[in-house]
Amino acid sequence: MSGESLEIVQEQYQAGKAAFERGQYRQSVEFLAQASALVDRNTRFGGEIQIWLVTAYEAANQRQEAIALCKQLDRHPSYEIRQQSRRLLYILEAPQLNRRPEWLTQIPDLGAIADNESKIRLGKPAAGGKSSSRSLSPPEPVDLSQVNTKDNRFIWVALIGVLLILGSLVWWGF
Length: 174
Fold this sequence. Notes:
CATH superfamily of the domain at 3-92: Tetratricopeptide repeat domain
Keywords: Membrane, Transmembrane, Transmembrane helix
Region (Disordered): 123-144
Transmembrane segments: 154-173
InterPro entries: TPR-like_helical_dom_sf
CATH architecture of the domain at 3-92: Alpha Horseshoe
Number of helices: 6
Radius of gyration: 31 Å
Helix content: 40-55%
CATH topology of the domain at 3-92: Serine Threonine Protein Phosphatase 5, Tetratricopeptide repeat
């Protein structure tokens, strides 16, 4: 593989991983599939790309493609890739548990929101025109005539308790 094509493969691979981590699974599948097509699949790097592609397939709800690729990777020359594909295949082929709707938390789909949406601007006033910043003023002084300053003797009880514990530790030689 030439240096230029290896660079392209690495760019596609990094873009696929980044898209996966942002939750853009279909885009991740595209990048990783392109990287996998350009690299020798029997190398460790090729196997690593395909493992990422399996997880992207699963995240993009393409379970059959993920299972098929895992079964292909079971014959990969690298022991680590074979082992990882067996673990993934075990997870993918596991039976789905029935979950009651009240056990689940619905996560909204944020795929429609653009990364650099021009409607939201940090540090700028809202559409009303005024900024909602609080004025920092010193706290009001406390009126000490309203504070209960009666001695409840707790401090003396705690001090005597500590002294008794320390004295008993000295007496027993700890």
